[in-house]
Amino acid sequence: MSALKFPRLTLWRVIVSLIFAAGLYAAYLRFFHGFVASTNLSDTVPWGLWVGLGTLCGVGLSAGGFSIAAAVYLLGMERYRPVARVAVLIAWLGYLSVVVGMMYELGLPWRIWHPIVMWNRHSVMFEVAWCVMLYTTVLTLEFLPALIERIPRPHLREIFSRWHHRILTALVLVGVLLSSLHQSFLGGLYLIMKGKLYPLWYTTELPPLFYLSAIPAGLAVIIMALYLSMRSLQVRLDTRILQELGRVMGLLLAVYGVFRGVDLIRSGNAHYLWQPRAETGWFWLEITLLVLLPVILLLSPRVRENPLKLYATSALVVMGFMANRINVAVTGLQASSGVYYFPRWSEFALSFAVIAAAIVAFRFAVLHLNIVPRETGGIGAVPASEPSAMLFPQLRPGPLPSASRVS
Amino acid sequence: MRAQRKAILVDLKRCIGCQSCVLACKELHAFPDKPEKDLSPTALTIVRESHGKFIRRFCMHCQDPTCASACPVGALKKTDAGPVVYLADRCIGCRYCLQACPFQVPRYEWDRLVPFVKKCDMCAARLAKGQVPACVEACPVQASQFGDRDEMLQEAHRRISEDRDYVQSIFGSEEVGGTSVLFISDMPFEELGFPVNLPKEPIPAIAAGALKEVPMVVGVGGSVLAALYWITQRRQEVALAEAEESERAKPAKTGSRGREEERS
Fold it and tell me: Using CB atoms, which residue from A47, A194, A399 is nearest to B203?
């Protein structure tokens, strides 16, 4: 619309532009001067920030997509329907950023298709590669309606929606299975690091622990995205959905915390909790941010019912989750590698640029597609109906059925 | 088949640190012959000094290699002859093999724009021609020997039982399920920096245990989800039918909706 006008200069736009510029320069270093010029990786630390923050967090924090999709489309939890598209959008962008990340993470990215034809079914990474590949496709299909709706050909739209409607349930079901597999197998990647990964993180239960932590962390990202969208993108949403998400998140985090504690005791590694080592500090930081603080805070209705406090709590969860994944991928391997690794600036720059791109894309999608109900915008741009009503015309989304339970 | 697998026996008591094996390896691969402290893309074997002993280091060629199980595209393979070989054409550069190796052996060409993994392949090409590995051939004191794994194990047992100077164990006989490179020494392996705390069972088995769950997760998970979906659908159908019925009986029904809106 106002494409010819120079965009207004705001603080955020300046920051994002700087991040993109730094990311571009880091990408130049990576592709024209190699790993040596762009990373601090070495033979003893072959995986660093790009795996820890990029892949592990990128996939993990996108877990809200399959969770909400399962709740709405399989379990009939209608109260989450208004946020279903946001969840799918976040997950889709998350996986796309992981795929983009692969392009600079892999030494030979032009061979990224190799796992399709070159199989090794003994490899956990092979399973992860296939699941991520398939699930990214599933997410694309799940999100497609939001794009197809914008096609100005009613006839085409109708054909598509009828076709899409038929496969949606199967699509969601397959998505849940694929997610369950690879969310846990990301932890499974570290099963073979027995003796290398510090005992506070190494356990044979890594796969279920990765799975159990990803779901609440994915919900935390949805809460944060919704809160910020309500604040600055004129999104209008019943805040009881946020409350409900917060409640479930707290519950799942408590389950995760108990599971983790029991597993530490069971594996006989509980005495590592008190050793005067750097790892101990990182562990407690992680657990405090991911489990202890959020669970205590979410017990209080004053936190759950206040969107800002809920947002802050979710931010703690996301930070704790990142700490957990980076601890597994980097900190927990430091001692056995014998080498101190701290990411080079260009590793940060590339990761941040991809995250920033995902956020910019999210903002664009919420503003220009029918993702969540918004207050402004022409009637044509944002239909007053629920976003996904079109997919389930027979199910009229009424007011929150959970209203009585939440209060 | 396993009995025919070849192995290299390294006797650290015999090693005089002459670096002949290192140079032979570099020559074979046309690497620059500058001395290197640790394994690198241009040093697939090294001999370093520690506590007055010379320690040779190179790929252990595990019987059940963790790297081969880890590689998503099968670029690392245990051959029937014994060597663990690297198929560069398959590699995508994920470096999971570097993470996986319990001996931290594979090296990566970090300074190249088209980087590959580098590690000893026990001269698999020479073996196919009936030759012995270049390093073994070069050794002037037979500190490195080559033969069937069973024979090498027997030879190692013979030496350590005949000479009490030796540590009474063979490194590689059991570690991570056994390796095709065996070490005997007259100084404790621990002091020489060998990873002595490795499990006796093959590491890939741990991951295999998790992978075994896949059909179960898909089968049970899929059925449960499908069942839940069916139940919720049915419940909604029933609710819809009931609502229609009550609507027919009492057309004006705005009470409950109005109340809920009040509360929000």
Answer: A194
